[in-house]
């Protein structure tokens, strides 16, 4: 089994910067405040070390898994990210096609530039989650949740780490503003009254599950006690995330928060994680720590920006090939059963 082709995410980001306006590239790349969380995220995964098992003889590990009952060919999925037509003309459609070609799950953002039902129609057999923000009136948010259920999404992802918008200094300095012609497909129709949006509470987890008819995933959890309350309130899965360093800063790295959340709820529900995952060994580390799946944000941004839907496939397939290679090197044969002692803290 040959080593996988080189997936050079740094070179992809550099190339994307050549193609995008500087303020747009900074909007995608940037984090909040001092960007400490953003900077530390990849390094935190690398604070773990692999402990390869030898003489196991399994050169072709099994990569398929299921996420809330939906089959996928890889545990690497696409995190929700906003305004994809700003990165490439293929937009969210390109990401949906690219993820489907890699056998990966895509999470579609509320802030998509493509309407939510159009995206379940792209590669309809490829499972997708829909991510919900409460950015407009409660009535509009509830309507979007119902439509996500009707459109065939497999889960509703409530992003709870944005009670207020993070202070993204790059955007403040550049004066970044969304292009006037950018479609915001899931916004209320013109004339819809702007209403204040009360923060979500634990009760909303069950309420949105009922409204949408979908299992609810709570995204943006960094603490075991919060994860336990989410599960008590009816969450079907918990997604450990600090929003890619774009909200609270300096927030704990997800590579360090994940074990606490897995200890609290890992026996009851699926646990996902994102933030700074940039290689197959990062993925294997997350799986060993108890994550069922990982999601990538910026690698998908740079893939779409540089190569449209094929660029997304290359990134997801590249990370998956690296994962398979690292598993073979470590004597691990199944992504659904990665022993915790496959890794140890670096000393
Ligand atoms: C995001 N993220 C995000 N999350 C969410 O729930 N809804 C959204 O609309 C967005 N939008 C968004 C835009 C951009 C440009 C980025 C970079 C991120 C957060 C995203 O889902 C995820 O948590 C992080 O991107 C994961 O970190 P990495 O992989 O980018 O390091």
UniProtKB/TrEMBL annotation:
Glyoxylate binds at residues 133, 168, 243, 246. One of its GO terms (molecular function) is FMN binding. Keywords: Flavoprotein, FMN, Oxidoreductase. InterPro entries: Aldolase_TIM, Alpha-hydoxy_acid_DH_FMN, FMN-dep_DH, FMN_HAD, FMN_hydac_DH_AS. GO terms for cellular component: cytoplasm. The active site is at residue 243. Its cofactor is FMN. It comes from the Bacteria. Belongs to the FMN-dependent alpha-hydroxy acid dehydrogenase family. This is Alpha-hydroxy-acid oxidizing protein. It comes from Geodermatophilus sabuli. The lineage of its organism: Bacteria, Bacillati, Actinomycetota, Actinomycetes, Geodermatophilales.
């Amino acid at each position: 089994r040959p080593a996988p082709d080189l997936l050079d995410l740094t070179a992809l980001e550099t190339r994307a910067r050549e193609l995008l306006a500087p303020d747009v590239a900074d909007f995608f790349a940037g984090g909040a405040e001092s960007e400490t969380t953003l900077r530390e995220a990849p390094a935190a995964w690398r604070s773990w070390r692999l402990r390869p098992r030898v003489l196991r003889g399994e050169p072709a590990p099994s990569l398929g898994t299921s996420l809330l009952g939906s089959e996928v060919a890889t545990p690497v999925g696409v995190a929700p990210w906003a305004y994809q037509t700003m990165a490439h003309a293929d937009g969210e459609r390109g990401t949906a096609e690219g993820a489907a070609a890699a056998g990966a799950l895509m999470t579609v953002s509320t802030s998509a530039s493509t309407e939510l039902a159009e995206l379940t129609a792209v590669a309809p057999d490829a499972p997708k989650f829909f991510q919900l923000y409460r950015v407009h009136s409660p009535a509009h948010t509830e309507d979007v949740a119902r439509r996500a259920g009707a459109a065939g999404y497999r889960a509703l992802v409530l992003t709870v780490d944005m009670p207020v918008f993070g202070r993204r200094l790059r955007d403040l300095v550049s004066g970044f503003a969304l292009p006037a012609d950018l479609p915001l497909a899931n916004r209320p129709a013109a004339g819809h009254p702007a209403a204040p949006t009360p923060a979500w509470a634990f009760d909303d987890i069950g309420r949105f599950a009922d409204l949408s008819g979908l299992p609810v995933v709570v995204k943006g959890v960094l603490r075991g006690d919060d994860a336990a309350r989410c599960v008590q309130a009816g969450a079907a899965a918990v997604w450990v995330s600090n929003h890619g360093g774009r909200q609270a800063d300096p927030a704990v790295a997800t590579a360090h928060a994940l074990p606490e959340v897995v200890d609290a709820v890992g026996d009851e529900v699926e646990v996902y994680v994102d933030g700074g995952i940039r290689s197959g060994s990062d993925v294997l580390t997350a799986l060993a720590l108890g994550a069922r799946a990982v999601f990538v944000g910026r690698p998908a941004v740079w893939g779409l920006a540089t190569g449209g839907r094929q660029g997304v496939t290359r990134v997801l397939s590249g990370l998956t090939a690296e994962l398979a290679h690292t598993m073979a090197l470590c004597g691990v044969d199944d992504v659904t059963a990665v022993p915790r002692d496959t890794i140890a803290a670096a000393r």
